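Bench notes, bay 3.
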Amino acid sequence: MFRFPAKHPFEDIVDFMIIEERESPTAFKLICSSGYHSGQTELVFPAEAKHECGGVSVAWLVENWSKWIYPGCGIESVKYVDCYPSNHGTTT
C-alpha cells in the first residue's frame, strides 16, 4: 500500500494498493484503497513494469511514479505500508 498527499478528486491523503489483475500484462493493477474513490482502478500496469522474477518492479515504480501513477506528488513523499492493516489510518 502506498500513502501519499493528494489533491482533488482525492482526499488530502490517499492510499493506493497493488492487487492482482488477470487482464494486465504484469498480472497486477493499482487501485485507490481509501476515501470516496476506494476500489477504483487507477492503473493497469504496462508490460514494462513487470519485474523479471514476477510482480511489479520497484525500480519501475520509483522511476515512473510521476508519469504513470500520480503526477501531483513526488516519489519522495510516498510512504510504503507493508501488510495494510484493516484499521490503518483510523484514530482512537
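Next record in the batch:
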Amino acid sequence: MDREKFSKGITFSAYLNKMTDSRRDGFIASYEQVKLEREDLSALARLACPIYVAAFSEDWCGDCRINLPVLAKMAEATDCLEVRCFSREEYQELAHRLGVERIPTFIFYNKNFEEIARWVERPAAVAKILAQADGGEKRNVRIAYNRGHFHEDTIDEILDILHA
C-alpha cells in the first residue's frame, strides 16, 4: 500500500452513501451503539500519529456491519486515524496482493505506509466462544454479537495491537 493506492479508498461516510437503505440502516445502528470509554479515548490520544487504515469490507457482511462502525467511531474520536474503505470485490487485485481473505480486514500503516498491524473479521473472544460452544450457546453468542455486545472487545483488540 502506498499513499496513491490508499487515496483510492473512500471515507466511511461515502461508503455508507453507496449502500442500499436497509444495509446503511444496519451500519448506522451499529455505529450509534458504539460507546468509547474514557480509557479508550485516553489510549487513542496516545497513538503515534498518523495511522492510516485500509478497511476492506462489503456491505452484505454481518461482521463488517458490526465492526467497521467501531473503527469509524474510533477514528472520529481522534485526528490520528485516517480510515479509507475498500470493497474487497471492487479491489480484488489489491486485496489479493495484501493477503486479504476474510472481511472485515483492517490494515494499519504508519506515516511511511509500512504495515504496523492487522485486525481481521471479529474479536478473538467471539471466535473462541463460537469455536467451543454448543448449538444453543452459539446461537445466544451470535445474537449478542449481532446486537453489539462485543464492541468493547473490538475496541480493546485494536488499541492493543496499535500500542504493541
